[in-house]
Amino acid sequence: MSEKKYRIESVLAQIGSIEEPVTGAVNYPIYQATAFRHPRLGQSTGFDYSRTKSPTRAVLEEAAAALEAGDAGFACSSGMAALQTVFTLFASGDHLIVSLDLYGGTYRLLERVLSKYGVTASYVDTNDLSALEEARQPNTKAVFIETPTNPLMMVTDIRAVSQWARDHGLVTIVDNTLLTPFFQRPIELGADIVVHSATKYLGGHNDVLAGLIVSKGKELSEEIAFLHNSIGAVLGPTDSYQLMRGMKTLALRMERHQSNALAIAKHLQNHPQVTEVFYPGLPDHPGYEIQNAQSSGNTGIFSFRVSDARYVEPVLRHLKLIAFAESLGGVESLMTYPAVQTHADIPAHVRDAVGVDDRLLRFSVGIEHVDDLIQDLDQALEAARAEVEGGSKNE
Ligand SMILES: *Cc1c(COP(=O)(O)O)cnc(C)c1O
Predict the structure, then answer these.
(1) How would DSSP label each residue in 100-138?
(2) Fewer CB near the terminus (10 Å): N or C of the chain?
(3) CA 270 to centroid of chain Cα atoms
(4) Contact 22, 257 (CB under 8 A)
């Protein structure tokens, strides 16, 4: 099947359905082999040793490259493994410009691991070209963007930043975990590399840990292929299969995640115990216009601030349908408290500067019925209010 001819829903549904030549199996099988027999000296089936290339993983990698409009795809053992592989493009003395409101694990990798190898990073509002210009140093090699950011959902103009980066000979890397290629394709907007925590929406079921890299251009793709094999943080055959299984329903899931998230974000905007809702699908969000211009839809997560930090603990305790857990992007709804969970590794002063404070909750909206989710949130907020007010009266 040529992916160019079909719309993305069809490409997704047919991942791996097309290439198994021996039996015609509709789903590409799990090749649980690490070594591959050579026909004779100097010949290869195309597979030698599975760290370098493995059949099931190769089908996933090809699909990833096609979906993200890139030239090559690489499947890694986690999103962090994908990030580590990409950051290894850089050498001691190199400098990166990075989105300010960043996934905590990426910040930790840069500040506590990459820093040991002499790679430095400046954190700026990547939607402010003058801030980018100010952060640029003679040794700057790349710009790393998350858009929208997690948890504050700040939107960066990928086209504008990629253009600026190209003008200065810098590589643009986009973490596209939150929107997936179903809603946003950064390479089409000018980026050079896309990374994913495929653990999130691509896998979609909170049951497989995986990362993906997609690159544009022959030279860059060859360099990443070399690093992917040399570092070896590759995805196993069974996980590759499971990820493809999840990706087949990506279109349906993203549409439901989006509609649920928008309805609940609107509901919470009018809730007396909520002061702010951060969701780029809301017309009053500062990134609304850019988001609409560069993406065909919105993610299923948003953050909100409750009016009193004392509500947080009882809200998390009283939720019934929504689980109090970190992670995002699965069919099951999860509520996270970023300041103590996902973003705990970011120093308090940095968290405060971006607004990840003690009143902020992040909601990864699942595909349950929207009315059940709203009911669960409402009862938890009400129970929290009753506890906090009861407590104050007793003081
Ligand atoms: C989860 C996440 C990561 C890390 O991915 P893992 O699969 O957990 O290693 C990176 N970036 C973003 C935006 C994430 O949400």
Answers:
(1) SS--HHHHHIIIIIGGGGT-EEEEE-TT-HHHHHHH--T
(2) C
(3) 29
(4) no
Structural domains of the chain, with CATH: 8-247 (3.40.640.10), 250-388 (3.90.1150.10)
- The set of catalytic residues is 51, 103, 175, 200
Supply the Cα-derived Rg of the chain in whole angstroms.
22
pLDDT at 341 over 90: no
Q: What predicted TM-score, i.e. pTM, was given to this entire model?
A: 0.95
Predicted confidence (pLDDT) per residue in 101-111, tens digit: 888 899 999 99
CA-211 nearest atom, ligand 1: 7
Take atom 4 of ligand 1 and give the residue whose Cα is closest.
Answer: 79
Residues 265-297 have pLDDT tens digits of 999 999 999 999 999 999 999 999 999 999 999
- Give dist(CA 209, CA 228) in Å, integer: 17
Residue 197 Cα, ligand 1 centroid: separation in angstroms? 4
Residues lining ligand 1, CB < 6 A? 78-80, 103, 105-106, 146, 150, 175, 177, 197, 199-200, 209, 211
